[in-house]
Design a protein that fits this description.
119 residues; Glutaredoxin; 4 helices; 5 strands; disordered N terminus; binds FE2/S2 (inorganic) cluster
Length: 119
């Protein structure tokens, strides 16, 4: 369901631009889940995924640690809907709303790893 950033193919220029733009979002121990809101992903229910992730963040009381945001096309439309977790540089592909809990689990795990490492 997910790959590390280093496993992505090099042909994705839009992804590289996105990565540069979001690097500041990791400061202060905040993880950001970017849900693609480009046309291709929207047609595959990315809004439902974003809404479900926000619900779960609230249910788990993680509002001060994990933010859910929409973003423009990440250049991987054929593998959408796409969700990117800035912390740990994880990309989730072909996401379905029922996978939101697993994505949030991964975000929490990445936060714990970051806290444990003292970064
Ligand atoms: S529309 Fe989501 S990756 Fe392009």
């Amino acid at each position: 369901m997910f790959v590390s950033e280093s496993e992505l193919d090099d042909s994705c220029d839009e992804y590289d631009e996105f990565d540069d733009a979001d690097s500041a979002e990791d400061t202060g121990g905040m993880a950001v889940l970017y849900v693609c809101a480009g046309g291709g992903c929207q047609n595959k229910n990315s809004k439902k995924i974003r809404v479900r992730l926000k619900e779960l963040v609230k249910e788990r009381g993680l509002e001060d640690r994990i933010r859910v945001k929409k973003t423009e096309c990440l250049g991987m439309c054929g593998r959408g809907p796409i969700v990117k977790l800035t912390l740990g540089n994880l990309i989730f592909m072909r996401v379905r709303p029922k996978k939101a809990e697993a994505i949030l689990d991964a975000a929490e795990k990445a936060l714990c790893t970051k806290l444990a490492s003292g970064e």
